[in-house]
Amino acid sequence: MNYKGRVAKISLTLVLFVLIAQVPFSVQAADLNDLIKKKDQLNQDLDKNQSAAQNKENEANSLSRQINNLTSDISSTEKKIGETGTQIGEKENSIAQLNTGIEQKKAELASLKKKLNSALIELYRSSDRSDMQLLFGSDSLGSASNEAKYLQSIETQVKYIFTKVDGIKKDLEKNKSDEEAKKAELDQLKNQQVAYMKGIEYQKGQKDKMLGMTLEQKMSYEQQVEKLKSEISSVSSAIYAERQRRLSGGKEQLGGGGSGYPYSSIDEPDAWGFLTRECTSYAAWNFNVIQGKKFINTRPGQGSAYNWPNLARDQGYSVSGTPRVGAIISWDAGSLTSGWGHVAIVEKVNSDGTIDLSEYNWIKYSYSYRKYVNPGDYGSYSYIY
Fold it and tell me: What is the DSSP track for 230-279?
């Protein structure tokens, strides 16, 4: 018991002694046991109230920590929005410069083609006469020689222009290819920007909800959080190492790109009832934010990846063995998926039966995009859509 509790008990005892002293002796003996019982009851009530107060303080501290982490996540997302905005501006400037260069090359190409046409016409006119005509049709041998040199100079000019035109065409093709690549990067950045913006809306809504909770709602929320915390994944280092080995030595490949997933804190409740930077949180975020499909944890404490087919059925989704772009793939628990299983988003279905995936925590607490995944290599699985 803390200092305040001991003081309260001492004060209660003194009060009881004062009350006893004021009661006639004839009734003191009869009432003494009752007073002692009341004192004990009051002490028990005091202990309960102090324990409840301590629990409330712990809940408040926990909620405050979650709100602080969420605030940090919001700041991180806003920073990413600013960074992608800058990158978008840079890409747009780069594309504008490429377009200017392409127009210049087109103008230069048009000018050279015009010169080439003139040179070819002149070459045709000059070569229309035979060598004898060039030689004897001239006023003198010197004149014939000059005409031959003139013809040779035109031929040289034609060859030069042809070479220059060919070079400009190659430059144009390269510039156009560069422009297409930069446009693809720009589209990816813009999509990422949209994802960040949507993500921050959810984060701010989650924070407002926490701040507006009543005491009773806070208690209920903390109980739910405890259920979520009971199933925190703890994937072993050996599993992570084996996953990396497979990526470096097999057909699977790590792809590029970013996700837009907004959370930076680890294992805090997200807006859908999962824990941040776990595979489940990323898949729920993608379904809700990117695809606009509602998917939440209908069974707090039982929301592990292997149990997602049941969560899906709770919410009216289909569970199938056939892959589809945008579907969630859910693996059972296994030696490479861990005791919690694993979920990911199907990004592409390849002609050879493999799939491309986006996911979180296949590489520890990080985003990854895997290509050419044979889902059967990792145990039993099903698709949700």
Answer: TT-----HHHHHHHHHHHHHSS-EE----------SSS-B-TTSSBTTSH
